[in-house]
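Hey, I was hoping to borrow your eyes for a little while. There's a protein on my desk that I can't quite get my head around. The fold is given in discrete form, as structure tokens running alongside the sequence. I'd be grateful if you could look everything over and explain what you see. Here's the protein in full, and shout if anything looks odd to you:
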Amino acid sequence: MKRSFHIFVFAFFFTTVAIFAQQQKDSIKTTKRSITVSQLQKVDYNPLSPSRAAFYSAIFPGAGQIYNNRYWWQLPLIYGGMATSIYFYIDNSNQYDRVRTAFRRRKAGLPDEFTNPDGTQIISDAGLESAQSQLRQNRDLSLLTTVLIYVLQIVEASVTAHLIQFDDSDTLTLSPSAIPDRSYFENSPKVGLTLKYSF
């Protein structure tokens, strides 16, 4: 409850600051840097790049990362994660089939692999039921993890394709400044916060 209250206060504060900053926009003198046509031509923005990266990743996992030239550390994570989750899916599925077959054979009165030749049970009926439930849950979780990694690598390829096209040169600046708000009573001035960036 405390955390949600802090988040609400934080969001309210920044929303209020943005409203006050918008109101003061007309009264603040700002210097604007003119952008020439030659500078605009230097920006090489491809609006289809994120779509292509997402499409390539959807067709073949990791292809979007190769398209973005960000594959040297991302491909091992993608293939390692997917291979691990697929391995656990196959292992849990095989174990589930073993336990389920043994449970069905036992219910039919036939010998199973979890019963000794003298008739003593290595695993009880309740144990077999519990093992089936746990192995099915593990199998489904492994499948969900595989699908999640597949979707995340598509999203990551698209977002990276967006971000690598942004200008991150040294001409970008960010300068915070406090601006008094005189639209209220002179006896109780309010203070707002503005973040200005120039490029």
Notes: Residues 125-163 form the longest helix (39 residues).
